[in-house]
Structure formats: structure tokens, C-alpha cells
Write a structure and sequence with these properties.
CATH architecture of the largest domain in chain A: 3-Layer(aba) Sandwich
CATH superfamily of the largest domain in chain A: Thiamin diphosphate (ThDP)-binding fold, Pyr/PP domains
Number of strands of chain B: 6
Helix content of chain B: 25-40%
CATH superfamily of chain B: Pyruvate-ferredoxin oxidoreductase, PFOR, domain III
Strand order of the largest sheet of chain A: 2-3-4-6-5-11
Number of helices of chain A: 20
Shape of chain A: globular
Strand content of chain A: 15-25%
CATH class of chain B: Alpha Beta
Structural class of chain B: alpha/beta
CATH topology of the largest domain in chain A: Rossmann fold
Number of strands of chain A: 18
Oligomer: heterodimer
Largest sheet of chain B: 6 strands, mixed
Distance between the termini of chain B: 22 Å
């Protein structure tokens, strides 16, 4: 058995390849990006020609993966937690169609919002869609679970959700590799009606899904990922899941306190195991990374049963990721800090790279919009969101992928003039194009600035679907040719660019300004690889 | 044996090359290892850290508990102070003396160094200068790792072997420069 040193993300990718994956689908998003990147750089994946191209967004990725599953092969789709919102329509309906080849949806949550706009817990989606969900607590478990998730998926003909969090995704540990499984052959679903969700069919299938979910709950009492370890000290029983289990072990290692512990990593969580530990102990502490999913279920509305401690009563903070200190305090153990951070240490927020094209675009935008006052610029998700911070303070919104375009339209509908959107090239092809069509159809007086750095920059420079296509896309959607302006954001073009922006702001229809200059990080990476290939 | 190490710096300074070197050496020494990294937004010039935990027993938490780090290795002086709540009473702080200034309110360097000197066990090293002398201005991180190496419970040779493995594809010249930088750092601490 081979030992490999892998990030949690990479362990999942390696496992998928070892378990006979035929297609990987994803849109980049921290902390999930490295799953696809690992497969793209894998020699094995190249030799086997496993599908490994980025998709335009999480919904197209999810649907393509479902298509591969329809054709009988094993597929995986990976995204960050908010990406599952984008893919939610296909994800939830895929539970009702069911699958043919095994299908795993990896959703990487980001509690504490290290690189995200919220910290939603994907386990809610598992319950919402009535699909099995696995939540690994370490890299080895992440690796092993992929094999089991494919099996469960094919056994029950259901998609399986694999929920991970930032700490696991981006932490490296050694894992033991298993024997590989060959890829599946092309084979169509036995029932030709399986994937047709006409109401009459969907009603039947949904009833079946509901009953299946209860059988899964019952079966999960014997899942190897849900286990109970009894302890002598019955004053407190601890229920924990996912990575929270590690923080618990870290504390119990050094303690003589021998509490009964129930670890849950396979959902729907089994009622029997929970009844068992609550029946043995005087009080219960619940440790969950993310939302109080299990805690809410145990407390219910009345909360009149056993005394429960967790996120809902403040024993554990209601939001944010866990750490060893939070868990120690929740159990009642002392926490010893080192020295305080000296007061002279200043915050160092992320910032634009030196020489970044977004900087020059924003400098021109700031000057062009100045006469109209504050509050006219809607923006989006990407490196350019950093323009919210001083010295730029140049944008007024950042909500979700594509929202700059559509919020600019809505504000313009309300009478705001000018109404401006700033969106990146990759974000535009992810979710900005449909909004642009809305603007074109009603001829909204909006200016859409596509800050085109020809890459998906914030996540580390993945290929952008927009590269080389932006002008044709905008023209095809119906923006008039005279109002698709391409500028090069460089200091020497500043005055000219300010002039172009001002002109387009004044135009009473849809205009698109494509500010195009390659990301300096990807440009440097490209030059390095060109040099080494020479 | 247990070594809990915090690596710190600014996004883009390449602290992960130090982490990878120690990681490779740990695997070669059959140690258990967990290494938590920062990817994503903070990599754009923000403060970054990596928790690296080595042990002869399985490691539970991916994060080092407060007050338990044996060593802080920092490629930037102000960043070395940000993680003091993690440093144990007898822990060592090894830092580059060269500041990375990308914020308007960066404190005066002499005041930062004064704070670092208040730490019982500290080493301040001009890694950039020593790297230049070793013939590779870009190997400052290996100088710092060398300076920290006496406090990492692994044979020095295993770190050297890890450097050879890590930079293997980049050619002999780069391997040599990095090995020289690693040794120069170690000499400084001895």
C-alpha cells in the first residue's frame, strides 16, 4: 500500500481516480479548487483521459456530471458551498431522478468565511434533497469515503453529498492508498423513464425517495463512519461530527476525563445511536463545524429533554469555525494562551498585486464616476472586490456571482443614473451573461465593465471560459457593436480610458467596456512554463 | 517526539516551500504529520500562516492549540509577532529581519525588532542578505529554514534531502544554491 502526502482536497481527487472516476466537473472556488487541479495535473487522469475541464459554473458542472452518471460512468462534481446554491436546481432534482453510474457532489464549506461571503452549512442541502451525506474528519477518511460514497450511490441509485470544510480541504496529511477500481463501461439506465421528471413520474419517485431516506437513516446506525465509544464518566456525553472530532481528540488526549463520545460522519444521522448516548449520559455537548444541524434536531422546538450544550446556548460560539481552544472551553478545560500580540502589529488585509490591471481600470473608473457622486458601482466576486477597501473604496456591492449586472439593472430601473457594473471575465461567463440579456431586452441604461484578466484570478489562475470570446458573446447577446468598447488598462492609457468610460456612462442604453489585460500572476506563470519548455 | 511549528509571512512570500521541505523530511523520517495551509483570498498580499505538526504519534487537530507551538518560523518580522498567542513558554521564534511593507501604517522596524527581542528564545536573521551571499537571492526562505533547523527534531540531512527532492526538477544549480542557503542559515544559529 502506497503512502501519499495530500491535502484533503487532493485526497478526494486521488480517491476518485483510484475508484474508477470517468469525469470530474467543477468551477473554481475556495476551498474546493484543488480537487480539479489535482486531477488536471495527474498523469493517471491524462493517460486514462478522465474528463477534467472546468465548467462555466457549478450548475453546468453538476448537470454534466449527472449526464455522465446517466451514461453509466462514475462522475464527481466539486464546488465551494455557495456554488451549491448555483447548482441547487439540478442537485435537488438529481435526488429524484436518481443516478446510474455513481455520482458524488463535493461541497466545500468555509466556516469563518476565510474566502467567502457566507458560511452556510451544506449538510442542510443533504437533508433538503434527501440524499446521503458523508462528512470526513480527516484526510484518510476523506479518501476512504469516496470509495464508499460511490458504492452507496450505485447501491441506492442516489447522488451522494460529500461535505468538507476549509481546514480539511487545505490541510495536508499522509494517507494510505487503496487498490484501484477500473472505470465503468458505457451503459444506459435500465428504466428509460428514470430521468424524466414529468409530474406523474416525479410524484412516484419522490415518494420512493422519502422512504429510501428513512432506510438510509436506519442503515447508518451500522455505518463504519458513525461510531460510539463508551466512557466511564457519564456526567457528559459528547456528540461530534466531521473535523470537530479532531479538536475533541486533541483535548481528550491530555485529559483523564473519559466521556462517552458519539462520532457522526454519515447522514442522515441515525436516531438509534443518538438515543443510545442521550440515554446513558446526564448531559450532552454537541460539537459541529458549521451550523447546529444535529443540535437543532435533538433540541427540537420544545427543548425539554436532556440538557444540551452547543452552539444554540452559547457554550460554543454560534458562528465561525471551531478550534482546539473553543472545544476545550466548551468541555470546561482550561486554555493557556502564549503571549499577547503586541499592539504595534497592524492588520494586513489582502490587496491587489503590484502591477495588476484591475488597479488601472479602477483608477480610471474612480475619476470617470466622480462627477456623479458616491454609490453608482455594483461589483461582483473576484480579485476586483478588493477595490472595496481603501485607497480605492470604488465599489458599492459584492453579493453573489453575476449580481453586479442585475443589481445595476434594478437600480437603474429605480432611476439611479449612471448605473455601473464591474465584473470579472470568468464571473461574467459564470453568471453575468443572462443578466446582460435582461439589460439588452429592455435597453437598460447601464454600463457593464468587464475587467478581463483572462483568468479566474482569485482562486489561483484557472482557465477562464471567457478568454477570447467576450466581444462575440456581448455582440451575440445583442449589445450594439458601437457600445462594446475594448480598453487596455494601463497608466499610459488613463486619460483616454476615463474619456471612454464617461462617454459610455452618458449613453442611454446598454454599453459594455471590456478592460482587458492579462493577470500578472498568470502571465508570470505562463512565461515560466514557456521558458522551461524551451 | 512532538514538534508544533507555525510558519508565517505575507501571501506570495512562499512560506509553503518551507512547509513542503519540512513535510518531505517528516515523511522520510516516518513521522506523523498534519499541515494546515491558507489558500484563496489571503494569498493576495495578506497575512498567511501554516500550522505544521510533526509527531511520532498520530496527530489529531489540524490546528495547533494556543500556547503549544514549539517554534514560529517567519519570513517577515511583523508577521512573526502575530502568532505569539500560540508560542509556548519555551518555544523559539526564528524570523527574517527584512520587512515586507505593503500597508500604509507599517510600524517602524526598530520597534518591531525591539518586541521580538523581548521573546526569551529568538533568532533574527538577515535572510535576504545571506541568500544573496550564497549566490541565490531567491533562496531566503531556505536560509530561514536553516536557521530554524536546530529546533526541529529531525536529522539535518533529512532536510537537505528534502531540498534536493523539492527542487529536483529545477536543475543542479538551483538545488546547490538552496542547499548552500540552508547550511548558511544553520551556521548562523549554531
Amino acid at each position: 500500500m502506497k503512502k501519499l502526502l495530500l491535502l484533503g482536497d487532493e485526497a478526494i481527487a486521488q480517491a476518485a481516480l483510484d475508484a474508477g472516476l470517468s469525469g470530474m466537473y467543477a468551477y473554481p472556488g475556495t476551498p474546493s479548487t484543488e480537487i480539479m487541479e489535482f486531477i488536471q495535473s495527474s498523469k493517471d487522469a491524462t493517460d486514462r483521459n478522465v474528463h477534467r475541464q472546468w465548467s462555466s459554473n457549478e450548475k453546468t458542472a453538476m448537470e454534466a456530471a449527472l449526464g455522465m452518471s446517466y451514461a453509466g460512468k462514475r462522475a464527481m462534481v466539486a464546488m465551494k458551498h455557495v456554488g451549491l446554491n448555483v447548482a441547487a436546481d439540478s442537485f435537488i432534482n438529481s435526488a429524484i431522478t436518481g443516478v446510474n453510474g455513481g455520482l458524488i457532489i463535493v461541497s466545500a464549506d468555509d466556516p469563518s468565511m476565510h474566502s467567502s461571503q457566507n458560511e452556510q452549512d451544506s449538510r442542510f442541502y443533504g437533508k433538503f434533497a434527501f440524499v446521503p451525506c458523508f462528512e470526513p474528519s480527516n484526510q484518510q477518511e476523506a479518501y476512504d469515503m469516496v470509495f464508499d460514497a460511490f458504492e452507496v450511490s450505485e447501491k441506492y441509485k442516489l447522488p451522494v453529498l460529500l461535505r468538507i470544510t476549509t481546514r480539511l480541504a487545505h490541510s495536508r496529511a499522509s494517507i494510505n492508498q487503496k487498490a484501484t477500481i477500473p472505470e465503468k463501461m458505457l451503459s444506459l439506465p435500465a428504466d428509460p423513464m428514470q430521468f424524466i421528471l414529468l409530474p406523474a413520474i416525479a410524484r412516484k419517485k419522490f415518494k420512493f425517495l422519502l422512504s429510501l431516506y428513512e432506510s438510509l437513516r436506519y442503515e447508518n446506525r451500522i455505518s463504519k463512519y458513525n461510531y460510539f465509544k463508551d466512557g466511564r464518566n457519564k456526567d457528559l456525553g459528547i456528540i461530534t461530527c466531521g473535523i470537530a472530532y479532531n479538536y475533541l481528540l486533541e483535548n481528550l488526549d491530555k485529559s483523564l476525563n473519559d466521556f462517552p463520545v458519539l462520532k457522526i460522519s454519515a447522514y442522515p444521522f441515525p436516531k438509534d445511536l443518538i438515543k443510545d448516548i442521550t440515554g446513558r449520559c446526564k448531559e450532552i455537548l454537541i460539537l459541529e463545524e458549521g451550523a447546529p444541524v444535529i443540535e437543532e434536531a435533538i433540541r427540537g422546538i420544545l427543548d425539554e429533554g436532556i440538557k444540551v450544550f452547543g452552539r444554540l446556548d452559547g457554550t460554543v460560539p454560534r458562528d465561525g469555525e471551531l478550534n482546539p481552544a473553543i472545544v476545550a472551553k466548551a468541555i470546561g478545560f482550561p486554555v493557556s494562551y502564549g503571549q499577547n500580540v503586541p499592539s504595534l502589529v497592524k492588520m494586513r488585509p489582502p490587496s491587489f498585486c503590484n502591477g495588476c490591471g484591475h488597479i488601472d481600470m479602477f483608477n480610471s473608473l474612480i475619476e470617470a464616476v466622480k462627477p456623479y457622486g458616491h454609490g453608482h458601482v455594483f461589483s461582483d466576486i473576484g480579485c476586483y472586490t478588493l477595490a472595496a477597501l481603501p485607497p480605492y473604496s470604488a465599489i458599492n456591492s459584492c453579493v453573489d456571482m453575476g449580481a453586479s449586472v442585475t443589481m445595476a439593472i434594478g437600480a437603474s430601473d429605480a432611476g439611479l443614473f449612471p448605473s455601473i457594473a464591474v465584473i470579472g471575465d470568468s464571473t461574467f461567463t459564470h453568471s453575468g451573461m443572462t443578466g446582460l440579456l435582461d439589460a439588452v431586452v429592455k435597453n437598460s441604461p447601464v454600463t457593464i465593465i468587464i475587467s478581463d484578466n483572462s483568468t479566474t484570478g482569485m482562486t489561483g489562475g484557472q482557465k477562464s471560459q471567457a478568454t477570447g470570446r467576450l466581444e462575440q458573446i456581448c455582440e451575440g447577446i445583442g449589445v450594439s457593436r458601437e457600445h462594446i468598447k475594448v480598453i487596455v488598462p494601463l497608466r499610459k492609457n488613463h486619460t483616454e480610458n476615463v474619456g471612454i468610460l464617461k462617454e459610455e456612462f452618458e449613453y442611454k442604453g446598454v454599453s459594455v467596456v471590456i478592460a482587458s489585460r492579462e493577470c500578472i500572476q498568470t502571465a508570470a506563470k505562463r512565461k515560466r512554463s514557456e521558458n522551461s519548455n524551451e | 517526539m512532538k514538534n508544533d511549528i507555525i510558519l508565517s509571512g505575507v501571501g506570495g512570500q512562499g512560506i509553503l516551500s518551507i512547509a513542503s521541505t519540512i513535510g518531505l523530511a517528516a515523511v522520510a523520517n516516518d513521522l506523523f504529520l498534519k499541515q494546515s495551509e491558507v489558500h484563496g483570498m489571503s494569498q493576495r498580499g495578506g497575512d498567511v500562516q501554516s500550522h505544521l505538526r510533526l509527531s511520532d504519534k498520530p496527530v489529531s487537530s489540524d490546528l495547533i492549540p494556543y500556547g503549544k507551538a514549539d517554534l514560529i518560523i517567519s519570513v517577515e518580522p511583523m508577521e512573526s509577532l502575530r502568532y505569539l498567542p500560540w508560542l509556548s513558554t519555551n518555544g523559539w521564534l526564528v524570523t527574517n529581519s527584512n520587512p515586507f511593507i505593503n500597508i500604509p501604517d507599517y510600524p517602524p522596524l526598530d520597534e518591531i525588532l525591539k518586541e521580538i527581542k523581548k521573546i526569551k528564545n529568538h533568532i533574527i536573521i538577515d535572510a535576504d542578505g545571506i541568500a544573496k551571499q550564497s549566490g541565490s537571492a531567491r533562496s531566503g526562505n531556505m536560509v530561514i529554514l536553516g536557521a530554524a533547523s536546530p529546533f526541529i527534531e529531525m536529522p539535518f540531512e533529512s532536510l537537505e534531502n528534502a531540498v534536493i527532492k523539492l527542487f529536483g526538477r529545477k536543475g543542479d544549480q538551483i538545488i546547490e544554491a538552496n542547499l548552500k542557503a540552508l547550511k548558511a542559515g544553520r551556521e548562523y544559529s549554531k
